[in-house]
Amino acid sequence: MEQANTRSFLSCLCFIFFFINSLELITTAKGNPSLVLTNEIDHQALLAIKDLIQGDPLGALSSWNHSIHFCNWQGVSCGRRHQRATVLNLSSLSLVGSVSPHIGNLTFLRRIDLGNNSFHGEIPPEIGKLFRLQYLLLLNNSFQGEFPTNLAHCSNLRVIHMGGNNLVGKIPTELGSLSNLSYLILAANHLTGAIPLSIGNLSNLHRLSLPYNNLAGSIPTQLGQLLKLEYLQLSVNNLSGMVPTSLYNISSIYFFSIADNQLHGILPPDLGSTLPNLLVFFVTLNQFYAQIPSSLANAKRLRHVSFAMNLFIGPMPMNLGTLDALEFLAASGNSLGTNQANELMRFLTSLSNCSNLQALDLAINDFKGFLPHSIANLSTKITWFNLQDNYISGSIPLGIGNLVNLQFLLLSYNMLTGSIPNSIGKLSMLEILVLDNNIISGEIPSSIRNPSRLGTLDLSTNTIEGSIPICLGNCTNLQQIHLDHNHLTGAIPYQIFGLSSLINLSLSQNYLTGLLPQEVGNLKNLGGLYVSKNKLFGEIPATLGNCEVLEFLYIDGNLFKGTIPTAFRQLKGIQELDVSWNNLSGQIPRFLREFRFFQYLNLSYNMFDGKVPNGGVFTNISAFSVVGNSKLCGGIKLLQLPACPMQVLNEQKRPFNHRVIVLIVTLTIVLLSLCILAFIYRSKRSRQQIKLALPLQNQYLQISYGELFQATNGFSPSNLISEGRYGSVYKGILNSDEQIVAVKLAQALILTATTSRLWSSSSWKVGA
């Protein structure tokens, strides 16, 4: 009973509390009608924002309607007291459109987050009216125009993030008045001009990120006043001059990147002591010189450091091996190294203590000495090992196989000798193996097939012997194979041409023999094929025409014979073709002039004959060569070839298209058929006319001249009936049946008539 009473009492208290609050709210509304009015202003402003959003594929704004209060709309949060919009969060909703100026009416907003959408147009200057605004996040959109200067009126701003847009113009000086600003991120825009000196006034600034712009001038010394600065990112601009020394004294900095500018000078000797909290230090692609300070080892938390592409000299600091957290170390593209043969050995050995090391890049320097066996003790986390373009000698240590997570092994342009160790097959994660331009000998180990992810194999310009391993056909991810300039022998294994991923195959300048396999046509993605200067023979496989994306084809310096296959007509994208120094014959295909992308064509020193085609690549004397073909004629004048005989010209006239030939033959047959039908028709008609005329002809009697002479009494004038221009008509009586007839006698007949029987078709007629 007591518990029931207690519950009832508590329920009453809750009801009374709710009633009092409701009464207070009603009283406030009655006493302050502007509250309802201002809520309606927010409501209308939000609807105006929605109106300018043309794309909402996720339906995120479907709740923005009159059926529910705007404080319950997706992305809108309101204050509990005044029911005014305080947060507008529409980030990552794939929205497309522009931002309405009515956003400036949401005067209670403290946070605007429109990041990761497709908003465009200018940032409304009306945002400057939002004096309560603390967070403005417009990152990764397509906003244009200049940075809104009147944001300086938003004195409570703490974070401005407009990275990843298309803003232009200068960073306004007025930003220096935002004393509460802690994050200023304008990365990846098109901003120009200098970094404003006023930024040095932002005493609460923790992060300054301005990379990937077109900022110029020097780094202001005033930035050294930012004593709370932790993150400094000014990379990929056009900054010049020296870095203010004061920047190196801001001990709170953990991220320091000024890479890819035009800065110069030396790094302070006590760098690691003045920046003890460093995690990342990048000065890549500048013009810093002198030595790398060994004091960096004092920054015990250092993980990523890059001095690449500068002018540093001298030794690598040996104490960097004490940095347990070190993950990435790059110093390529300098002049590091001394004449001490064991320097590299000592430095690599010292890195054995860096158990988190993932990438080591010391390429393009002056390091000498052997690769130590101690590289087997490097971190098993290492994925990138690059010592290209140094003066490293000796052989590749067998212990390289211990680096089981290695993905990129780059040792080209050194003086390595010996053979490729079989332990290379233990690198199951290997994607790129580049050992070119050394003095490596021996055979390609069969264990090369084990790294199933291998995409690039470059062993070119060595002295490698033996045959090309058939097992390369098992490396199904291979895209690049470069084995040129070696001593390889035997035939090209057809299994290689089963690698559908292959883009480039370079086997030039070896001692390979046999045919170029027909299976080459299986390489649908092949962009470059180089088999120059071998001993390949037979005909060029017509299946090459199936490699429709082929751009570079070099088969010169072999023993190929026959003609250029007509299937080459399909190689529409070919840019360079070299078939010189072979035994090819026949005419130069005219379709070669139709290739639009041709930049180089070499047909020299073969046995081609006939006319050199005109047009296309054959109009540019510097783009093609036909020397060493003594039976050629014609072409452009600069070739100075003899004119082609008429017989050759006739033989090389462009043949009719087979469709045209079929059409002509068909039309000829049709016309002949019509002519025959017309002839038959006319013949039949003539015979019908003759048949119709025969009854008429039978009305005339067939008698002799003598009978007529007797019937007319010797053509007596007494029997004359009439005379005309063409003859006379006589009356006659035939003795046979005493029939009276009229006889018309032509004048010519009197002179030529005989006693023979005459027909009605003669020049006289007898009518009964």
Reconstruct the topology from this structure.
Blueprint: H1 2-31, H2 34-51, E1 53-55, E2 76-78, E3 85-89, E4 96-97, E5 111-113, E6 118-122, E7 135-137, E8 142-144, E9 159-161, E10 168-170, E11 183-185, E12 190-192, E13 207-209, E14 216-217, E15 231-233, E16 238-242, E17 255-257, E18 262-265, H3 271-274, E19 280-282, E20 287-290, E21 304-306, E22 311-314, E23 328-330, E24 335-336, H4 343-350, E25 359-361, E26 368-370, E27 384-386, E28 391-394, E29 408-410, E30 415-416, E31 432-434, E32 456-458, E33 480-482, E34 489-491, E35 504-506, E36 511-515, E37 528-530, E38 535-539, E39 552-554, E40 559-562, E41 576-578, E42 583-587, E43 600-602, E44 607-612, E45 624-625, E46 631-634, H5 646-651, H6 658-697, H7 705-711, E47 720-723, E48 727-733, E49 740-746, H8 747-752, E50 765-767
Parallel strand pairs: 3-5, 4-6, 5-7, 6-8, 7-9, 9-11, 10-12, 11-13, 13-15, 14-16, 15-17, 16-18, 17-19, 18-20, 19-21, 20-22, 21-23, 22-24, 23-25, 25-27, 26-28, 27-29, 28-30, 29-31, 31-32, 32-33, 33-35, 34-36, 35-37, 36-38, 37-39, 38-40, 39-41, 40-42, 41-43, 42-44, 43-45, 44-46
Antiparallel strand pairs: 1-4, 2-3, 47-48, 48-49, 49-50
How would you sum up this structure, described in words?
With about 775 residues, this protein is an alpha/beta fold. It has a domain at about 700-765: 2-Layer Sandwich (Phosphorylase Kinase, domain 1), CATH 3.30.200.20. About 15% of the residues lie in helices and about 25% in strands. It contains eight helices and 50 strands. It has a 24-stranded mixed β-sheet, with no helix packed on it. Residues about 1-35, about 690-700 and about 745-768 have low confidence and may be disordered.
